[in-house]
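Molecular record:
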Amino acid sequence: MSRNVREQFDFLGVKVVSRREVTYPIFDKFPPKDCEELVLRVDDMWGQPYREIQYAACDYLFRHKELLGGPQLVFLKKLIKTRAWRDTVDTLATSVLGDLAWRLPAVRTKIAAWIRDPNIWVRRSAIIFQLQYREKTDWPLLRDFCASCAKDDDFYVRNGIGRALSEYARINPSEVKRFVLSNTLPFQTSQEILKNI
């Protein structure tokens, strides 16, 4: 498990199903009474040494995401940047940040500033947060984000562009194809997007 994240984190070696069999009953027994308690609990779990505890924190946050509001955008950004890797970042971006921006469209304006953030995981999150929006995707916003990062050297940012555009191509293939052919994306990213259009 540690090899999958380039030996950056320590693991207990607990698989997903086993972990959730243990944690979900605890989550059900101890729901947070409010947003402040949710943030405190997740923040505490995030500081623990084993990776499975960050996974559990993502599950807990997801189960109570409706408690989050605009002010918690700063907290989500902190989680995205701390102990960061694709495993937690993608869950937070698509399932928690995406939900927040869906419920509170004004949050999208603040996320727009993330595309210029020096942190690669913050940029990736801005690109993929709409991944589950399907036909409700804000295409002009996604298009602008992808264009802003088209020449980004980082693999995970380029990969995020590929994921986001490939997903939206299921809904609007002609627009995605037009975008890819009129922008200078890395060859591998372009090929990955276009192969299924």
